[in-house]
Amino acid sequence: MQDYGLTEIGRKARKASRILNTAGCLLKNKVLVQAALALEENQEHLMEANAKDVAAAEAAGMKHSLIDRLKLTPERIKGISEGLRQIASLEDPVGEVLSMKKRPNGLMIGQKRVPIGVVGIIYESRPNVTADAFGLCFKAGNAVILKGGSDALASNQAIVKVIGQVLEANGLPASCVQLVASADREAARQMMRLNQYIDVLIPRGGAGLIRSVVENSTVPVIETGTGNCHIYVDESADFAMALDIIENAKTQRTGVCNACESLVVHSVVAEKFLPLLAKRLSPKQVELRGDSRAAGAERSVLSASEEDWGTEYLDLILSIKTVDSLEEAISHINRYNTGHSECIVTENYANAQKFLDEVDAAAVYVNASTRFTDGFEFGFGAEIGISTQKLHARGPMGLEALTSTKYIIYGNGQVRP
Amino acid sequence: MQDYGLTEIGRKARKASRILNTAGCLLKNKVLVQAALALEENQEHLMEANAKDVAAAEAAGMKHSLIDRLKLTPERIKGISEGLRQIASLEDPVGEVLSMKKRPNGLMIGQKRVPIGVVGIIYESRPNVTADAFGLCFKAGNAVILKGGSDALASNQAIVKVIGQVLEANGLPASCVQLVASADREAARQMMRLNQYIDVLIPRGGAGLIRSVVENSTVPVIETGTGNCHIYVDESADFAMALDIIENAKTQRTGVCNACESLVVHSVVAEKFLPLLAKRLSPKQVELRGDSRAAGAERSVLSASEEDWGTEYLDLILSIKTVDSLEEAISHINRYNTGHSECIVTENYANAQKFLDEVDAAAVYVNASTRFTDGFEFGFGAEIGISTQKLHARGPMGLEALTSTKYIIYGNGQVRP
């Protein structure tokens, strides 16, 4: 088995994490602000490295939209730096004692927020994730091991090098952030089995990447991302509100996990509502695919197959399912959703509460666009991803999701009887 | 590949979990109390089933101590029932809204505690775990799939059958608790890959079982159990207190994960302290294995090998490492511990704080026995296990560890600009 140096990377990361564990907030913020400045000062150098990646991608015939995501421009570098400054301005989650109670035997037992330790991030082509993931992990006191897309390797190496210099200038090991340099899949697989050194692995990217990490990792994973999000238009919905919300959730940005992919509509209002919806969405060229009753209500609706109900289009396509009751809507959603974001549009109090209670998802909305599922919109000031699993963190993950806790116990000689 | 019916079990569990998701606290408590009574009323029947398991185990030549763990007696059945009644008396964690904030755009965003959904438990021979794990999962609103040791199969089936009848008598599906009947390893492996139906897998048992689940499961796992726990006797330790704490942590119960396995002692006090310790532990027949300085200080100390530092003896053996500083103690502990429970005995304020800050474990103690790491001792009223990982739950896990959260968002037509 080829050695990709992962054990050595892991060992160094664990060592760095021990130092970061006790690094004060002032030092961490200083590093973040200086790293932001250093990235701006090294703009030319970063763009040179990036130009190599872009040239290679063009030579390999990469799709234009992907090349665009890969590109670094002065504006984007400015954006990356602003991101780091913003992270510096956030409150440090580490060290907070969440609760402390005195037990009858006199023991004081408290629960304290601590860094996780070593975080691994596996992601695709955007080089901005490199600085962003470092910033969030670092602020929460964690060392981070990054494995970015091979297409962005030169760009990522340049970014990590600049940050490493700032870390060292501040007396911290450059290994607080390390990049796995190999593009080989076997290197990724070895990273996913580095239980001794990596405490959690967060994949950021498409459904294929996430599935591969969940399948192959023995390191605990936080599953992020895929969103087959529904909006249910209830019998009592305010049509104008429903149209606004669906248009926003479907078209404001299509390639994102919190975009709406499927409309569920009560059969009593389908005939009136669907023609209005088709009219509203037609300037945005949204393709509608529905069941037979939806097609009967609005002739521009194409025929949906079973596969459509489970598809995250990430495109200007909306599936439409007609239901005869709220119960049927909830059961359809719970069957086909990915546990991301779901919305009911209703004026009925009891139905709103029932939907909130019974729909199984990270974020359940009454009368608002699913597009709000986002760390910034939720007021966390940052986001490392959106968890669609139920352990540790669910929904948008800010700095707190990058921490763990430990119990601290103050005694004066207690022994167990 | 043989079909062990796991997909069907998973499907039923998911369906039951949808129903349990909205089951009220009064109904859940009623079921728990009735199940407790039903187990007592079926005492003869349970003991008959158990006798088959015991006879088979004896015929197979199982160790006496393991057969003892397997046995059901009237007292043990009473204990199991009392456990269920106690769970009924605990506060229901489900439904609590942990926080709710209004965003500038008027959205009310709250975080609500909800059941996890379907919990899988893989455990070894004790039939009491069957009722206990059901009780905790059920109270937290989860369906549970149990895979107990093959040695206890008849006992477990009898217990699950009694509980299933109580569930059905109360209008709930018996599939709120299901037992995987096959003892085949392949059945366990299939259970570990049932991501579609199982939200979390909790192994309860020895290090081998836990390692196998961590290695093979694609379902998220909460790692529990193994404890290579240290007590560090600092330069300034009160010797009498240190002796009490070490004796308690080492000998009060030896086969448990929160027992002390290793003593770390400051070289300045080793010569005085170790003879006192040897004298104190000699009536309990504790074997001492130490480094050369420890052996030099107390002649009954045998020679320890590198392997000893990493060993969870679960036996009347204590390893002894001599260090020249608090830093060396912390670094030794962080290198060899399993992240369970660690203690410093000291009268020095700064050293106590440093130890609490820098030792990486679920529970870090000053001047108290590590034996307190336990859900009951921590005041949770119950325990499903002790997590030694950093995600989701760390340390003793009570009912809250068996819940997740979801964001509930109240809007009035908000769309994202």
Automatic annotation (TrEMBL), chains A, B:
Entry's localization field: Cytoplasm
Catalysed conversion reaction: L-glutamate 5-semialdehyde + phosphate + NADP(+) = L-glutamyl 5-phosphate + NADPH + H(+)
CDD domains referenced in this protein's UniProt entry, alphabetically: ALDH_F18-19_ProA-GPR
InterPro entries the record matches: Ald_DH/histidinol_DH (IPR016161), Ald_DH_C (IPR016163), Ald_DH_N (IPR016162), Aldehyde_DH_dom (IPR015590), G-glutamylP_reductase_CS (IPR020593), Glu-5-SA_DH (IPR012134), GPR_dom (IPR000965)
Signal peptide: none
Transmembrane segments: none
An annotated Gene Ontology molecular function: NADP binding
Pathway where this protein functions: Amino-acid biosynthesis; L-proline biosynthesis; L-glutamate 5-semialdehyde from L-glutamate: step 2/2
Biological role stated in the UniProt entry: Catalyzes the NADPH-dependent reduction of L-glutamate 5-phosphate into L-glutamate 5-semialdehyde and phosphate. The product spontaneously undergoes cyclization to form 1-pyrroline-5-carboxylate.
PANTHER family per record: DELTA-1-PYRROLINE-5-CARBOXYLATE SYNTHASE (PTHR11063:SF8), GLUTAMATE SEMIALDEHYDE DEHYDROGENASE (PTHR11063)
The protein, known as: Gamma-glutamyl phosphate reductase
Lineage of the organism: Bacteria, Bacillati, Bacillota, Clostridia, Lachnospirales
Gene, per the UniProt record: proA
